[in-house]
Amino acid sequence: MKTITLLQPDDWHAHLRDGLALKRTVPDLAKQFARAICMPNLVPPVKTVAEAEAYRERIMAHVPEGVAFDPRMVLYFTDHTAPDEIKKIKDSAHVNAIKLYPAGATTNSDNGVSDIRKVYAVIEQLEKYQVPLLLHGEVTHSHVDIFDREKRFLDEVLSPLLKQFPDLKIVLEHITTKEAAHFVLEQDRNVAATITPQHLLFNRNDMLVGGIKPHFYCLPILKRQTHQQTLLEVATSGNPKFFLGTDSAPHAQDAKENACGCAGCYSAPTAIELYAQAFDQAGKIERLEGFASHFGADFYGLARNTNTITLVQEEQTIPAQLDYLDDQQIIPLYAGKTIQWRKV
Ligand code: DOR
Ligand code: ZN
Question: Is the pTM of this model over 0.90?
């Protein structure tokens, strides 16, 4: 039986939500990952370092006994973010970055930035203090086709931004297209990207052929197979600009299986095995450790983990459903399907 041992991975993009949801999301994530970037799109959003510290305490209250888990916090960028909040991030022990959602781009993004040129005073501070700007990279104009929104963001928002702020540290989150992959490759070392398990393992046919499958619906939306192929190539290339970020995002079954279903795939409980599946299918399992356990920490300027995990090549069936909140369920990514890797 094939086994691999790697430094414990980190998840550089996860949604844990708040309140009762933490009972589900924190143990699921903490049994896989040593650290996670905890996305701030709560209702209301996490807008200041003080709010992020309070949210972190609520998360810590759900870490299982004997498990070491270090939530890394992020602020939610709004039109009203104060420039001096950025120095507070730099000085904080727990907050590592700020997340920019273009207003209206995705779940709980209504308070996002309406026009990036309005917040250049804050971006100046990000560049000065080398605090990473995490980007949901999609334009939101209603006339732009949903499959083109990432590419248009690169041309219309990100290129001009980098011209103005060439040393800005940027993570282009959950990239989904070959254009985004190539864009990141062409930039200097200050621009990196996260890639989700769903964008490595699936494409829009999985979501749409033979009936619409709402549990594959996330944003940015799954693209065509040629894009999936490029994402697999860059993720498994050993290039440190690309690292693990699940974008694991819980929504109750009712909210997904709905005439207006929510965007988000819940992958937290088996995320590292899903990535192992993707890397193995590409014949590059030996490249998993860099992607999952080295490159993200290096980019954020944090120490690499020192403990290890072991994965065995052995079938596991992903649960059909998981309990969520008081009386609801989540259907996890690839529910009921069998994959070839299992964390021991
Ligand atoms: O699919 C998504 N779900 N994409 C996002 O950007 C947000 C996330 C969520 O919070 O549900
Ligand atoms: Zn996300």
Answer: yes
